[in-house]
Write a structure and sequence with these properties.
By secondary structure, the chain is mainly α. It has a domain at 84-153: Serine Threonine Protein Phosphatase 5, Tetratricopeptide repeat, CATH 1.25.40.10. It is 75% helix and 0% strand. It has helices at residues 4-20, 26-38, 42-56, 60-72, 83-97, 102-114, 118-131, 136-150. Helix 2 (26-38) packs antiparallel against helix 3, helix 4 (60-72) packs antiparallel against helix 5 (83-97) and helix 5 runs antiparallel to helix 6. The protein is globular, with a radius of gyration of 20 Å. The protein starts with a helix and ends with a helix.
């Protein structure tokens, strides 16, 4: 049998744990976002990403995924496509992963490019390609960024 103080401590610990877990696992938010996208509901997908951000804002893989969504989802309207948020998320993802992940660098390069920072984008994309030389999409983006630089954009 537990002493009352020990039982009280257990109950308090359980309440604290319940308060900490007042949100779903990250995978649940992403599942809602992906299912919403498959049904053409970008607003709901964006809402799921934003809700997940409240709880998982320190997860570099999630931050990169959300930034990529904001940058590349063709069905997002101009109002929903928040390029400054995408840049902020991508910068944080790279900071959290130490700049060693080619995917995060690729996303940050695209965010920079879409925010008019072509020179920075090209330099970062070169690093991303060096980390993932077999990724044809990354090489295509590097070519696009270099072309924009040569055209003075």
């Amino acid at each position: 049998m537990f002493k009352s103080s020990t039982l009280g401590e257990i109950r308090a610990s359980k309440r604290a744990e319940d308060l900490r877990s007042d949100h779903k696992p990250l995978g649940a938010y992403l599942a809602v976002a992906r299912a919403s996208l498959s049904h053409g509901d970008c607003a709901r997908a964006l809402g799921a990403y934003k809700e997940a951000l409240r709880h998982y804002g320190e997860d570099p893989v999630f931050l990169n995924d959300f930034a990529w969504f904001l940058l590349t989802e063709k069905r997002l309207g101009k109002k929903e496509r928040d390029l400054s948020l995408a840049l902020k998320l991508a910068r944080k993802a790279v900071a959290l992963d130490g700049g060693c992940d080619g995917n995060s660098l690729d996303t940050l390069a695209l965010a920079l490019f879409m925010n008019g920072k072509t020179q920075e984008a090209a330099a970062l994309q070169e690093k991303a390609v060096s980390l993932r030389p077999g990724d044809s999409g990354m090489r295509k983006r590097l070519k696009r960024f270099r072309k924009a630089l040569s055209e003075g954009r």
